[in-house]
Amino acid sequence: MSIKLETRVQHTCFDGAQGFYQHHSEIIGLPMRFSVYEPPLARQQRVPVLFFLAGLTCTEETFMIKAGAQRYAAELGLMLVSMDTSPRDTGITGEADDWEIGAGAGFYLDATEPPWSKYFHMESYVTQELCHVILSKFPADPERMGIFGHSMGGHGALTLALRHPGLYQSVSAFAPIAAPINCLWGQKAFSRYLGESTDSWQKHDATALIESGHRLPALLIDQGLNDPFLAEQLHPDYLETACQKADQPLLLRRHAGYDHSYFFISTFIRDHLQHHLAHLTSTTRQ
Amino acid sequence: MSIKLETRVQHTCFDGAQGFYQHHSEIIGLPMRFSVYEPPLARQQRVPVLFFLAGLTCTEETFMIKAGAQRYAAELGLMLVSMDTSPRDTGITGEADDWEIGAGAGFYLDATEPPWSKYFHMESYVTQELCHVILSKFPADPERMGIFGHSMGGHGALTLALRHPGLYQSVSAFAPIAAPINCLWGQKAFSRYLGESTDSWQKHDATALIESGHRLPALLIDQGLNDPFLAEQLHPDYLETACQKADQPLLLRRHAGYDHSYFFISTFIRDHLQHHLAHLTSTTRQ
């Protein structure tokens, strides 16, 4: 399969390359946009690559503009990839009318219910097609891939790593929707995308997946205690309890004063990149 | 004069406080917005403060979201202030129709020509009223104030420092409009805001001000060589020549590959904060 990429814009950043790209996605059936930061080391060799999954309303630009991650990626020799949070311009009636469903709210799963099932295949897009594009077109090391994300994208990072064991060697999240079947965001999205049977919901809920025996690499989660979504939507305590019962390694750090914004993410992004590098190195370079 | 601030939103960031504010500006005659990052050290004592002037189309949010400066401000104990780039919602016909003039394009001067002269008083706003608000409401040290900016805001930083000697003890710029009377951006803005007499233009042109005997603290400028505005609009070489003739200290760094974006700014922001801290300390703490 030949891959055609349109380079929308490229910027030099910390002596590396920050690019924004578009391609026709076979899996989605529409154009999709993604972003890549290539550290200086990538001019010489294949480097570890981290996929960042953004949250509700975000695009492939958000993380690259707001997180301040490039300095550390440059220092540590890590490639960063982010992608849009859903298909766009699908023609589905009302697709952009509600920020919790449709455009900007793909929830990193393959929808099974019409009308969303025609285009909303974000799980297959991220784990298969985008992965293939990155490994084919950029100097990324297929044996050292990590995944992380924020909020809805934290849910995505956890569930994609749980559902595709071995694909990602390191995982972390900022303020993830950790038990979506127990919050309104998750219930709304899952009922629209997956239908009313909660059996299918369990397969896309990080806490339920841990409870049913799925496992992850050692997990780092940062959570702000001033996060306005903490009490009703995120439920990291549910995931923490499941991990304790399952002996799933989890470092869950609760930070007084911090909220749900990228000002919170930027404060702790360095720790996440170091976490990934440590696990990518230790698991694959023994 | 009692100062009333509306706090629009605050975020914890690198253990400091990132706030976005609005107040009624007496000098502008309308509400104005600005942003402040207070480093952790500011909880204990007054700290040096840097005013960042953003470029065309930007707002008080741009620098705080995109530059990645807070990490270094937290480490170095520096307060950061940014502000909107013009009055907004003035009712002037066509105020937002052209990105080079009017809303988002205040050029950090006091307009003398109608219709702009009624509200467009950005020089007095930044050097007097905002300065007073910051020193009154935040733990900033009035003896250690620096100014810097980007593009139109680089022009602003240079000219405000040149026109108000002693107010700012440190100055730097990213890709400034260094000789605005010699570029279309400057000619367009100055003719509309200041009238057709170029005598008044000279007083708001950094290169002309140096040539006419004005001086600055030791100046740092970073300029990307892939900047699409370099050849036609920025003219750092004009400023460099004037500084050489005038024995005005200038470190002008030209960076291959870098463009006009905040990806460029973020790469070198640490150097600028260190430049300011060094000069704020050395000039006022002897």
Automatic annotation (TrEMBL), chains A, B:
Catalysed reactions listed for this entry: S-formylglutathione + H2O = formate + glutathione + H(+)
EC number: 3.1.2.12
Keyword Membrane among UniProt keywords: no
GO-annotated cellular components: cytosol
Family: Belongs to the esterase D family.
Major enzyme class: hydrolase
Top-rank taxon, per record: Bacteria
Keywords: Hydrolase, Serine esterase
UniProt GO MF annotations: carboxylic ester hydrolase activity; S-formylglutathione hydrolase activity
Protein task: Serine hydrolase involved in the detoxification of formaldehyde.
PANTHER family: S-FORMYLGLUTATHIONE HYDROLASE (PTHR10061:SF0)
GO BP term (any one): formaldehyde catabolic process
Active site: S151 (charge relay system), D227 (charge relay system), H260 (charge relay system)
Pfam families, alphabetized: Esterase (PF00756)
UniProt-recorded name of the protein: S-formylglutathione hydrolase
UniProt entry tagged with the keyword rRNA-binding: no
